Amino acid sequence: MKSSVAILPLAMLVLLLAGRVHSAERTAEPTRVAGQKYVRLTDWAKANRFEVSWLKPDETLQLSNRWSKIVVAVDSREAQINGVRVWLLYPVVAQSGTLGLAQLDAEATLRPLLSPARNQPGARVRTVCLDPGHGGKDPGNEVGSCQEKRHTLLLAKEVRSQLTRAGLKVTLTRSTDSFVELPARAELARRRSADLFVSLHFNAAEASRNTVHGAEVYCLTPAGASSTNARGEGEGGGWFAGNRHNEQNLFLAYQMQKALTQNLAAEDRGVRRARFAVLRDAVMPAVLIEAGFLSHPAEGRQIVTEEYRRRIAHAIVDGLLAYKRVVEQGT
Predict the structure, then answer these.
(1) Looking at CB atoms within 10 Å, which of 24, 149, 236, 293 has the fewest?
(2) Model's pTM, two decimal places?
(3) What is the rounded distance in angstroms from the CA atom of residue 195 to the CA atom of residue 206?
(4) Which of 292, 284, 232 is closest to 266 using CA atoms?
């Protein structure tokens, strides 16, 4: 996916995930490119103990250290962090022979993954709110006689069963084929004192049904940044209640994407940013999962089976528990 902001001819991007970050924003005085603040990438990489090398000259770049391996492409917001695709907010650019990393990415993309925020002492993940997408008069994506709303509910019930066995309390925004307004979904999670909010969906792409497939996970776009969802819901760059948990949102989305792609061997469509209503209004860490494409001939047939639904649920539970283990360290 190409960036929506202006970039220079030799623009490159870089990202990383390691054991510890060393405050990239202190490595150089920021400059502005296309209205965004940038820091020098070489200084940032050095401060964070990364070696930089070209895998393919002027096309593919790798950053590596004892903890991580990051592969990025020239003139793209796309990166792989230890094998998981993550979409940057802005590209890294080349200016006067120097590579620049967007300061917002250093702060809102890299740091949350390099040094995940820990919960306050005693604050544990005990209750999860699952949000089966659509319902009632809103069928969601429809492929033949298959309606998204039915399969998100079935998936939510399977995830609830597995999370309950893992010792967590689970609440659903709907447990029947009923319509729930979008603002009410996050409000239900708040009223029920949920510690995490997970909205469940399935994708569709009729125009490219034979080629587009895979899983992607969204978290809320930071204020002032552009989203990576094609439809652009909630654009405008403003601040919302859900932005209070930007770091946790991203780390939860990363753990979910990692679990989905590894457990399902699904096409990795990446961790993405969007201003979906349910993410904007959530007052706890929140993600929206697109677990596969109903429109794809093979993946769509899998999604409607009980066996594959259990596998998706298992992956979601794995991602949640991985997040829980990290953020509760030291609490």
Answers:
(1) 236
(2) 0.90
(3) 36
(4) 292
